[in-house]
Amino acid sequence: MAEDRIVKPVAISGFPEWLPQVRLVEQQWLDRIRATYERYGFCSVETPSVEALEVLMSKGETSQEVYTLNRLQADPAAGSDARLGLHFDLTVPLARYVAQHFNELVFPFKRYQIQRVWRGERPQEGRFREFTQCDIDVINLDSLPLSFDAELPRIIHEVLTDLEIGGFTLGINNRKVLQGFYEGIGITDPIGVIRIADKLAKIGPNAVGQLLGTELGLTDTQIKACLDLAQVSGGAEVVDEIARLGSGGALLDEGLSELGFVMRELADLPAGSVVADLSIARGLDYYTGTVYEGTLNDAPGFGSICSGGRYDDLAGSFIRRHLPGIGMSIGLTRIFAKLVADGTITGGPLSPAQVLVIVPSDDRRPEALATAATLRSRGFKVETYHAADKLKKQLTYGSRKQIPYLWFPPFENGKSHEVKNMASGEQVAADPQTWTPSTWRSVR
After folding, report:
1. What CATH class is the domain 355-429?
2. Can you give the residue ranges of every domain in the chain?
3. Under CATH, to which class is 11-70+82-165+305-348 assigned?
4. Using 50, 70 and 90 to split pLDDT, how confident is the model at 57?
5. FRET pair for 333, CA 20 to 30 Å: which of 79, 216, 246, 278?
């Protein structure tokens, strides 16, 4: 009989996976992000991993990024065109969700969504085919107060600070400023300029200037004005600087007023961590006002770690109601993978257990199980050793899994329980009903 074929275990490129000690830290990140979002009153939503292709394509994203679904044993006679695709972000599914549940939601609707998304692009540093996004959005009926434009970056700033990712900068701009400025200098296709200007960080000002000339026919004077605008950054004072660069106009004035409001609202945050950055364009068509992009200070070429903006009516493709919104998204996998690669995140213990209960012998196993149950009822994470092996083997197991406390039920009648602190080596008598650990090791 032929031997069974051995399939070589190889991870798929662009689909990250972590060892348990690293995954433990990632889960702690997710818990901290979730807790911060909820502190600001955002509720959790989860949508299916798949959406109808007509939903995914409703906002103009290229179909080249979407993974479609087909059954392996699909009937060839049924045709090869897929009706479903994996979602490539969480914003378009949100628009469908809000439209579908419109009559059941309370507006302003504040939701957070932490899920994996999929994009069919070439894997490279910071870019994955499967990754986790952590979104917050606010959607309202008819109009959305500008206060949310300031609240969202404040929340994201709090999250990134809490995660201790190192220095970062949140850049803020306003699409009305860009569009109004471009129109004021005689540009007839301001949206086209925004799409090209969005490539500044990737290809640089010279290449952007060439594209503005060759693709849109801008004059040298117009190109220089666009590039000069992109150099402007700072605090609320940049509003006056931009006003001097432009030729005025209602749209420009409106955008400057909104940008100034947001920057003043965030003025209490650490200096330099939030800036008005006129190079931020965000090329997607649906952004209509405030836009955001965050970067790591020590890795400016790494790209954005969070982004988002205000959209006038993202749900308009699904319902005949005006539903403006604003959202920001943290690219959790992108940040996390970089810190793992850099050695900043080295992982936690090999087990989430705080206590390992030793099994002295087969006949005392029931007492070991009862001890573990008591400790769990008091909120501790407890593992019971799986067999009455030699004591040395059980101790080695606890040490290798880096479990901080080992619990010894009585080995003989009339003896007391004892617990050993693996860090200090101290072993003392203890009562499972009242014991409290002296120290807990932090996990990073």
Report:
1. alpha beta
2. 11-70+82-165+305-348, 355-429
3. alpha beta
4. confident
5. 278
